[in-house]
Amino acid sequence: MKTKFLSIPSVIERHDKPLTQLTALLEKRLQLFEAGAGFLVGELALAQGQVPYRNINSSPSDMDYQLLAKAGLLLASGAKSGELVVTTGFPSAVYELFKLQAEKFFSVRDVVIEYNSDTLNGGGRSRVQLTISHLEVMSEILGCIHAIRKGPLADDGNFFIVSLGYGTCETALSTAEGPIARTCVSVPGLRHAVNTLYDELSASYYLSMKNEHMINQSFQRGDIVIGRKRMNLLSARSSHLTSYYNEVLSPAMRKAFTDTDFERANRLYLVGGGALYPELVNHFQQEFEGILDVIVPEGADNFAALGYYLRSALWCGPNHIERAVGLDIGNAYTVVASHADEPSKKKKETAAPESAFLEE
Question: How far apart (Å, rounded) are the C-alpha atoms in residues 52 and 88?
Fold first, then answer.
């Protein structure tokens, strides 16, 4: 069972006028319409918008969450009406609070998505009608654990896991019987380092209208342009990630993980967007040298979406696997996981020899 992933930045900006002369793939030219208003979503909001935004840990009753959810469903469906089975989730800190709101928003009903389908000529809008036939809401850390146990890694033993998200970071010791509740801790995520960098830059430079989502893009790239001058941020990024690890992550893990826990497991999986920063991974390796193997699996930033997708796939079964969707609406990126169609194998047609044709 192959899975495909689509990822868009979790930002929106209001823009009522339909955009034109855009030829990119749908995920890079998303413009949705809601209650008579138009909104740029994802890459398009960053490229065409002025101050794209998303409220951190916004609830399913908020407009930004709902637009990102609809954008994810639109991409998952290939912009075609039909039926979907959806699994999504939230950080543990807000899981109980947002679970009922999500069930209300995604309740078994038709979700109508209106979007700009002709961004080349501005020819009009299209509507997609999707029926959510089943919804499951789970905690983000359980989604990541499910991906490790039921995905390509198929790890059925005991292991530590740290999910390094933008808004929150979550930890757990997972066993075959379930996670150890005492080790399940939620602390501020990577935005802590991004915001301290923002404070440092704003003390010396005029950052114009750049907000934290725009600074985060620069944080990821390792450079920023201020006053028409390009600045290298790699050294500053490393410094702020080090402070974040020493001040937030390491104390939280020291409190959550005991010597008895280390006797039960010998490996730690790093997942989430933070696992893509080598300097942050190095800190984990240094702290747990000789006690844990620190593993960054391939596609670590997609593990929550993968775990959600695998849960949906269980409900669908093999006959309707194309309906399964994992939807991870993160604070920095929204990731959609769905079934990847197997490439059709075309039979090679053997052409008749030219000499045979001439003889007929």
Answer: 24
pTM above 0.90, yes or no: yes
Closest by Cα among 48, 56, 63 to 212: 56
Query: What is the Cα–Cα distance from 139 to 34, expressed in whole angstroms?
Result: 28
CA-closest candidate to residue 186, choices 335, 328, 57 = 57
Alpha-carbon gap, residue 327 to 165, rounded angstroms = 15
Per-residue pLDDT 10s for the chain (360 aa) are 789 999 999 999 999 988 888 888 899 999 999 988 999 999 999 999 999 999 999 999 999 999 999 999 999 999 999 999 999 999 998 999 999 999 989 875 689 999 998 766 665 789 999 999 999 999 999 999 999 999 999 999 999 999 999 999 999 999 999 999 999 999 999 999 999 999 999 999 999 888 999 999 999 999 999 999 999 999 999 999 999 999 999 999 999 999 999 999 999 999 999 999 999 999 999 999 999 999 999 999 999 999 999 999 999 989 999 999 999 999 999 999 999 886 654 444 444 443 333 333
